[in-house]
Amino acid sequence: MTATSELRSANPVRAALRRWPTAFGIAFAVFAVWGMASGVELGQVVAASGFVYLGAAAVKRRGAAWPMFAMSFVAIGAADFTPWGDQFGTWALLGLAALLALYGLLRGAARPAEGLPLQAIAMALFGGIAAAVLFIGGDLGAYLVAAGLLGHAAWDVYHHRRELVVSRSLAEFCFVLDTLVAIIIVVVTLQG
């Protein structure tokens, strides 16, 4: 063991600070499922997961992922103040994603392929899951949300390892959030 690695392992505060995205993901997962009646109401989180990546790709800035996350959080929160509830959050995120994709195309973000083109495909998939859940509902809808979140967790790992599209901190945070919320949805749904 080198002197540097001994210092790092001896300083738990420094080690914990390096894992702030994980801690934030855990805290946000608890917040997301607080008061959850069913997993279906979290379908908009699946739309938000695709939206964040698409938004960062559209503006061609990895650092834009966190502001995109904040924007998705506002859209989901605003849904509670509308007569349409969760449906508003999902449709608002899908509409915003379409506008961002158009913006990205107009700004020449069609390259590289793992940027806007791949993120648009992923948004169509994750957004499609979120929209389908609005019509399916029930336990099947909850399991579909969980599957969508686990699929996005794999997406997070891919982007984190390759350092693509979004900041590593966002990918780590999102992986933890998606995975924990998916597990909680499955457990709650199984318990009835």
Automatic annotation (TrEMBL):
Keyword Transmembrane helix among record annotations: yes
Keywords: Membrane, Transmembrane, Transmembrane helix
Membrane-crossing residue ranges in chain numbering: 20-36, 42-59, 64-82, 88-106, 118-136, 170-190
Protein name per UniProt: Lysoplasmalogenase
The organism of origin for this protein: Glycomyces rhizosphaerae
Taxonomy of the source species: Bacteria, Bacillati, Actinomycetota, Actinomycetes, Glycomycetales
